[in-house]
From TrEMBL:
Residues 3-154 form the CinA C-terminal domain. Coiled coil: none annotated. InterPro entries: CinA-like_C, CinA_C. This is Competence damage-inducible protein A. It comes from the Bacteria. Gene3D superfamilies: CinA-like.
Amino acid sequence: MTTAETVVAALVGRRLTVATAESLTGGLVSAALTSVPGSSDTVRGGVVAYATDVKASVLSVDAARLAETGPVDAEVAAQMAEGARRLLGADVGVATTGVAGPGPSEGMPAGTVFIAAAGPWADAATTRALALDGDREANRQQTVAAVLDLLGELLTGSASDTPVTR
């Protein structure tokens, strides 16, 4: 498990900045990163885009895609990460979208989550699908941990686009 301290140190060491776009985590990824002393050297900011229309209007997620798939979708997560990156002028963008629970939403069961990270290491965002089975808070915390793991892997060059089930 990658810690926020490890991610912040890697970002600072590589002179990269980061921005977040969060839905189901409601700012928890930003909170984890900014809890680390020295994070002001790398964290540009974050957008909590809980409402679907905010994903489109603020983060420039394709409205047609949102209408077709809803907000719980890998491509939506990728566009959110890219949107945060552009909007906040960061080198790296990360995103979370999904259903924390306790019940289903948007036709998806609780625990269905997509995360994404976009950065200088690839032309397209890296996405991961998570199938979580905790309660609401556990699903939110596991999503934060998964984003930190993904960032850690991408910053060290060990990431894959393989879907993850936790």
